Structures are given as C-alpha cells and as structure tokens.
Amino acid sequence: MIRKIITIDQNKCNGCGLCARACHEGAIGIREGKATLLREDYCDGLGDCLPACPMDAISFEEREALAYDEEAVLSSQSKLKHWPVQIKLAAPNAPYFKDADLLIAADCTAYAYGNFHNDFMKGKVTLIGCPKLDAVDYSEKLTQIIATNEIKSVTVTRMEVPCCGGMENAVRKALVSSRKKLPLKIVTLSTEGKIIKEI
After folding, report:
1. Sign of dihedral through CA atoms 134, 140, 143, 148?
2. 112 and 189, same structural domain?
3. Residue 13 is part of which domain span?
4. At what angle do helices 165-178 and 138-148 cross, to 10 degrees?
5. By Cβ atoms counted within 10 A, which residue in 53, 78, 134, 165 is the most buried?
C-alpha cells in the first residue's frame, strides 16, 4: 500500500538516539551508530520522532510500505503497569494490589521465556525476586500483600532448578498464613525457556 512513512537521512544522522526514544511504537533503533527504521509496520506515520531529531535527518515520504500494524505494536510493548516490582520493595498497601491477579516471578524466568510479557505479565500485577540471592523471607511480605488486599489469583513462574523451589514454597506459605483460599497456578520453565510443568 502507498502511505506516509518516515525516512532517515543517514548522512545527516549523528546517532544520538533521541528519535528512537521519541518513537512510542518502537519502529526506530540504532544500527551501526545511525538511526534506522527497523519495522515499517510499526511506524504509524504521525512523526513523533521528527521534532526530536536535532539534525533534521528525519522527514516523511509517501511510498509503498507495509500497513501500520497496531496490534503487533501493542503486543510488543511492556505489560508492566506499576513500580516497584521487587518483592522486598513493594508496599503491601499499594493501590495496584486492589482486585489484582498476582504474578510472582523468579527473576530468571523473564530472561528464559521469550514472550514473558504477553504470556504471563499481561493483565497481572508482577512481583519478582530470587530466593537464592535475596537474603529475605518472601513469605512474610507476600502474606501481608495477600492478607490486606482483595487478590483474585496467584500465578508463580519458576525455573526447574532447585533454588526456585524457595519461591514456590514462600507463596504456598503466604497463602496458608493469610488464611485465604485463592486460585494458585505454578508454572515451571526449563533452562531453555520451555514450559515443562503447570499445576
């Protein structure tokens, strides 16, 4: 289809990256020190990147291009809607816990599983931690969060390695201590990032 889309003059571009930061869709990136249109189907043709460029290297052109794929753009964006995410930093009375589906993730899981945001985080309040490296008992904080909020469900993502059993145990202990019966799902991932067990 013929449509309006950006073009970047590589001779003018200084590689500052301001245009990439201004592009909310993630269509622009830096390659070999220059701004580049990475995905033409991510470019909405509105030009948020133009005023960000200090070198006047970006302009519009009308040409044959893939249609703007809003669905792909939305699915590629972060599903994180709150901060902080670290269990030990989360305030038990934070407003985002109200009526939340809770995801408790061993921090390695997001690195192992490629589509973690869309498959696990979407629509959930996410808390992360490492039961091996953090010198805290997560069950105490998780008990406070579950006991003082109307949590709807809890999902745990953990790796297959033994140390991740500490995350699962902390969540189970918190559910018992909070005296709430909530739907609980445990997803175990292999070190290759594959789901190997769901209970």
Report:
1. negative
2. yes
3. 2-74
4. 40
5. 53
